[in-house]
Design goal:
Elements: E1 2-8, H1 13-16, H2 30-45, E2 52-55, H3 59-71, E3 79-81, H4 98-105, H5 107-115, H6 151-171, E4 176-180, H7 182-193, E5 211-215, E6 221-226, H8 230-242
Bound molecules: 2-phosphoglyceric acid.
2-phosphoglyceric acid binds next to helix 7.
C-alpha cells in the first residue's frame, strides 16, 4: 500500500479578496502561512515523512510546501516544480471578484465557470497584459500556455505529469507530497477516484489541509481522508463552494 499526500496552498491574498486567481502569481496571507505551518505540524504529529515533493511554479503553492516542510525539518527534500500542477487558468476572469461576477451574471453562471467539467471561462486575449505567454518561467512551453481552461483541460495537462513522473516515483517506493491548487488537485482527485463529469461540480478542496490517499499496487485508491478534524475540513470545503455566490 502506498500513501500519497496532497495539500492545497494556504489562503492567498486573492482568496482573501475573493478574486479569481488562476495563473496569477499571488502571495500567501498571514493566515495562509499559518495554515501551511499547521499542515506541516499535522503531518509531523501523525508520523508522516516524505522522500520527494512536487509543486507548481506559483509561489502560493511553493511557499505552502516550504512552510510545511520547515515544520517537519525537511526543507532539504528534493522538490520538483512543474507548470502542469498550476491552478486551472481562469482566462479573462483572472483578477475579477467572484461575488461581483455572481451579481452581474448570476450564481448559476459563476458555478459553471468555477466548477463545470467542460465549460471554460471566457478566454484572455493573447495581447492582454494578464497573459502569461511572455513570462520567462513558461518560455519553454509557450505553445502550451493556455488563455483559459476548463477542468477537462486541466486534467489533460496534469495527467502527463502524473503518468510520466509522479506515478513512477510513487511506484518506486518514494513517499510523495504534492502541494498544488484547488483545481489542479480536483483534476487529480477526479482521475484517482474516477469521479463522473457531473459529480465533480460538488468537489471543493479546502486550503492547507493535508489530503491523504491510500493507494493499492496499481495506484487505485483504497481510501482517502483529510488529516485533523473532519468537520473542520468539511466546513472549509463548504466555505470554498460559497465563494461564488452573490451575498
Ligand atoms: O481563483 C482560483 O484560481 C480558484 C482557487 O482559488 O478559485 P475557485 O475555487 O473559484 O476555482
Amino acid at each position: 500500500m502506498y500513501k500519497l499526500v496532497l495539500i492545497r496552498h494556504g489562503e492567498s491574498t486573492w482568496n482573501l479578496e475573493n478574486r479569481f486567481t488562476g495563473w496569477t502569481d499571488v502571495d500567501l496571507t498571514p493566515t495562509g502561512v499559518a495554515q501551511a505551518k499547521q499542515a506541516g505540524q499535522l503531518l509531523k504529529e501523525a508520523g508522516y515523512d516524505f522522500d520527494i515533493a512536487y509543486t507548481s511554479v506559483l509561489k502560493r503553492a511553493v511557499w505552502t510546501l516550504w512552510y510545511a516542510l520547515e515544520e517537519m525539518s525537511r526543507t532539504w527534500l528534493p522538490v520538483r516544480h512543474s507548470w502542469r500542477l498550476n491552478e486551472r487558468h481562469y482566462g479573462a476572469l483572472q483578477g475579477l471578484n467572484k461575488a461581483d461576477m455572481a451579481k452581474q451574471y448570476g450564481d448559476e453562471q459563476v458555478l459553471i465557470w468555477r466548477r463545470s467539467y467542460d465549460t471554460p471561462p471566457p478566454a484572455l486575449e493573447a495581447t492582454d497584459a494578464r497573459c502569461e505567454r511572455s513570462d520567462r518561467r513558461y518560455s519553454a512551453y509557450n505553445a502550451e500556455v493556455p488563455l483559459t481552461e476548463c477542468l477537462k483541460d486541466t486534467v489533460a495537462r496534469v495527467l502527463p505529469f502524473w503518468n510520466e513522473t509522479i506515478a513512477p516515483s510513487i511506484k518506486s517506493g518514494q513517499r510523495v507530497l504534492i502541494a498544488a491548487h484547488g483545481n489542479s488537485i480536483r483534476a487529480l482527485v477526479k482521475y484517482l477516484d474516477n469521479i463522473a463529469d457531473d459529480a465533480i461540480v460538488g468537489v471543493n478542496i479546502p486550503n492547507g489541509i493535508p489530503l491523504v490517499y491510500e493507494l493499492d499496487a496499481d495506484l487505485k485508491p483504497i481510501k482517502s481522508y483529510y488529516l485533523g478534524d473532519p468537520a473542520a475540513a468539511a466546513a472549509a470545503a463548504a466555505a470554498v463552494a460559497a465563494q461564488g455566490k452573490k451575498a
